[in-house]
Structure formats: C-alpha cells, structure tokens
RNA sequence: GGAGCAGGUCAAAUGAUCGCCGGCACCGCCUCGAACGGUGCGGGAGGAAAGUCCGGGCUCCCAAGGGCAGGAUGCUGGGUAACACCCAGUCUCGGCGACGAGCAGGAAAGUGCCACAGAGAGCAGACCGCCCUGCCAUUGGCAGGGUAAGGGUGAAAGGGUGAGGUAAGAGCUCACCAGUCCCGGUGGUGACAUCGGGAGCUAGGCAAACCCCAUCCGGAGCAAGACCGAAUAGGAGAGCGUUUGAGGGCGGCCCGUCCGAGCUCUCGGGUUGGUUGCUUGAUUCUGCCGGCAACGGCAGAACUAGAGGAAUGAUCAUUGCCCCUUCCAUUCCCGGGGAACGGGAAAGGGGUCACAGAACCCGGCUUAAGACCUGCUCCAAAC
RNA sequence: UGGGGGAUCGUCCAGCGGCAGGACUGCAGACUCUGGAUCUGCCUACCUAGGUUCGAAUCCUAGUCCCCCAG
C-alpha cells in the first residue's frame, strides 16, 4: 500500500544505505541495550539511543533459536529495506536503533514491517520530547 | 484409468525503478600511495549450499621412523587422489512382477552368554511314556537298569522319510533325499556355479559379545597458519631446572631421535583491530576414442560468489503456472435428440511457490522437500 | 563456522542384553482433637524411527532436541 500510494517524486529519489549507517561492533550493541530506551510492537522490540551523529544507524538482532537461516535472512532483508526507505521520515537527532525480531515476524510482509517500524519510531519521539 | 518400480530434467521468466556485496577502468581529494567519495562496465547461492557422518587436498607441528595400545573397513573383481562411496557380478532374503535390500570373513584357535519355562541349554539330557530284570503282589506298586520313536517345555532339544533290526529303541545297519568335510574334473581373473568320487554320521545359535584373521590409519584443524599495528607490562609470589639436563617436538605409552635454558602454577593488568590465507580447480562444457559400466585418455573452448553483526533484496508491470469465486445474472465450447446436469474456457480476486542461504576448497553418504518428462511392471476395462 | 558431551517417573540420578530401581514431590490410608513429623501403600518414565538378537533402556545406523568449548 505504501509503494502504491507513493508519489512519482518520492519513487525516483535514491535511498542509499552504506556500511557507515549500520551498527557493526558488539560494544555498540551493548551500549544501545544498556543506555537506550525500549519500545515494543507485536513483532519487534526496538531499542534506540541518541548517537551524536547526523544520521541514524541500524542494528539487527534475529535469534537463531526461532528460525532457520533462510527465514532469518528474509526478516533481516525486510527490516533493512524498511529502514532504507523510511530513514528520512525518522525525526532527528541521529539515533542508534537496534531492532530485535520476535516470533511471528517471519509471516509479516515487507510493507507491513515498514509500517510497524515507522509507527514505533515516530510515536516514541512524542512523549519523550 | 488405478497401484507401483527405475532413471532423468528443472528449481518461474522478462523489463523498469530504488538499493546491497565484491572485481576492473577512469575521475575527484591528496606531495604520492592507501583510505574515502563519484561515474561507467560486467559478475553475485544450492540440489541439497543443510546434518557434519566418512574420505582427501591445503596449513602448521624438525622429519613423520619402529613396536604396543586404539580406531576403521570386511563376499569377489574393477574405478578413484581417497573412502564407509560408485560400477559390474556372486550368494542370501523380500516382492505375483518391474525391481529392491544386505556391518555378506572366521563359531572344528580360544573365552563367554543362552533369562523364564523345561528332566535336560552345551565332552547333552530320563519328567511322563516304552522295554527288561528282581522283590512284593494277582488289573498294580517299589527298586535297579536300558531306551531319544512319541508327549510336554522353549526362540532353539543334536538330520528327514521308508525298510531292516531289537526286549524296547537308536545312523545300530541299508536305500533315497538334504547338509558337512576332503579329493578331482569343467566354466570363470575371482566370489562362485556345476559334475563325479570318497569319508563320516553330526558338528546348535550369538562375533551390530570379547576376540582371531586380512587390509588401512601420525596429530590437530582456515577460529589451521603467515604478516602488520595498537595497548599494558617488561610486574609480584611459589615450585622445578641449567649439560649429571627441567621442559618440549610427542598427540595414549615405550624405544629411537631432535631442540634445548628456561618452564609450570597463582595474583594483578592489557588487547580483544587490520591485511593475507580466499578462490584456476582431482574445475566446467563440447567433441572423439577405450570400457558392459563406474570411469579414463586426447583435443578445443570457458572463467563461474568471495561476505565478515555477515552481500542476491524490495516495488511495479506483462507472460506462464497454481488456488479460490461465479447464490442471482452474462458469453463460448464439449458430452446429450432436447432439458436438467456435468466438465472446460472466458471474466474477477489472490499467490509467485516446496525444502531451503555459500563462510578454505573438493569427492561421497544421509536427511529435507516440490513440479515435470521417459521407460517398465501388475490389476481392471475396451478392441 | 569448527570441536566435544548428553537425553530414563513431575525433578535429580542408578541401571553395561532378560522383573526399570532409589531419593525428593504428588495422592490415599494409619497415628493425632487438628496440623507437622513418622509409618504403610499407590501413581507416573527409557527422545524418535529402522536394524542385529529368541529377547534391546542397554548393541548398530539414521534423525530430533538440549548443553559446553574455541575469536
């Protein structure tokens, strides 16, 4: 539904997602978990923390316990794609965001994933600010 | 048509837009290079990538020596770098059949086990029965002995049938059959098959029990290993030792051999980065030749993922395929004389398929799970 | 990714080819005015599927799940 209603101007924009916009070290994950805030949706747990940079960074946690390798890859791709397309809609300041998938997430389509994620990330700024 | 057996192929396709990973070329930045940013070109998961069950390559352990221990394999011949794999056969078993399965050496080398039941379960064995003798006695009982034909037990009771024989019986004797061993012939490289002769009359099962025999195996694993850099410290305490040798290579042990001045434990502290190994290889495809086949040889062509919190995706459109809807109403085709009805197509909606994601690389095995094609078998029907 | 270990009543363990046992728990009964403690009895299990064997928790093969170690 989001792709269908998107304007031609928005469609033609590029949404790059380079390596610098990802969390890659164990320490970074640990810091977000320790110092950040947490918000829960039906299929994900979202931890976030202001990082002092001009952009947001994304980290994904998909446990081996609930899915096999193919399902884990699909969930991570959906989450990454949702973040890439909706990154400009998440309000600044720049944050480190860690998304933890919960059981049931493998049944979600990528469009629904994006909706759920964006709702969680825009809503959280209201009460806190 | 139904049920089944064997083999093979595929793993939706095309285009557009936005992204990801690495390669090459160019440009920018910069003293140069690296890094970073940008542009262009051409790549980017599997048949099982999986489980990690075997076998190799590769790397390090100086070299990988001898013996013991340990492990693996186990019909025959071949293939291979190697294998527990594959191919072709033999034997046994299963199936009406196509066909499939088999850890398929040795039980007369030795040891062990065979619960319960049963008289007896391993140089067999008398509970009932049968027979003989003696004693008491008149249908019978007791004692001693003989007997494996019958009953009964058991998963299994030491060949089968018939005749002779006997007190009753017994391979005790004989004939036939089955099986064992020995010798010889024929076919086959061989497992083995088949034929003839002889011996002797029984020799149970379990080796996925210990074991014996034959063959093979050094250990660890890319988190192997190599290089660069950073940080802390060149700490404190205890023990052993310096050529009469601690400790190590050595991995379970011994022999042998080599290195050899430090080694081990505790406390305290630091780093927990980058490059490389990393993809051209027992590689793939095509053709010819050898071979029943697995496979091998020769020639030509091709380059086909290299990530690292971990790359292949998302959206849209079209086609193909599949599923659902059609209560009322609409169109076409087929079956039907027509109607009812049934089937198919159009139309509309949805899905993009099942199993599943490379982590040093190959060869297998096993497990997971779709679709299609070819050949064959059995049954049913029709001709 | 590689290397190793395990699975037995509700829980923790034993069992090495022939009846599956112990402790705690649970239930019932006895004792007691009642409860606790004690005593007696009962309930309940071999991870799954094939194979070897007369017979498998045990031996062999394949699978499932869980745990540990290595940067």
Question: In the CATH hierarchy, what is the architecture at level 2?
Answer: 2-Layer Sandwich
N→C terminal distance: 30 Å
Q: Please count the beta strands (DSSP E, at least 2 residues each).
A: 4
Number of domains: 1
CATH class: Alpha Beta
Sheet with the most strands, sense and barrel status: 4 strands, mixed
Present the secondary structure layout.
Blueprint: H1 2-5, H2 8-12, H3 26-35, E1 37-40, E2 44-50, E3 57-61, H4 69-86, E4 95-101, H5 110-123, H6 125-128
Parallel strand pairs: 3-4
Antiparallel strand pairs: 1-2, 2-4
The chain binds 2 RNA strands through helix 1, helix 3, strand 3 and helix 4.
């Amino acid at each position: 539904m989001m792709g269908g209603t998107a304007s031609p101007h928005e469609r033609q924009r590029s949404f790059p997602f380079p390596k610098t916009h990802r969390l890659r070290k164990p320490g970074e994950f640990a810091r977000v978990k320790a110092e950040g805030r947490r918000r829960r949706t039906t299929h994900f747990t979202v931890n976030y923390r202001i990082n002092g940079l001009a952009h947001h960074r994304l980290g994904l946690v998909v446990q081996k316990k609930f899915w096999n390798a193919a399902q884990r890859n699909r969930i991570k791709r959906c989450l990454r794609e949702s973040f890439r397309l909706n990154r400009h809609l998440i309000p600044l300041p720049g944050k480190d965001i860690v998304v933890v998938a919960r059981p049931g997430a493998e049944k979600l389509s990528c469009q629904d994933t994006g909706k759920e994620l964006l709702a969680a990330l825009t809503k959280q700024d209201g009460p806190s600010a």
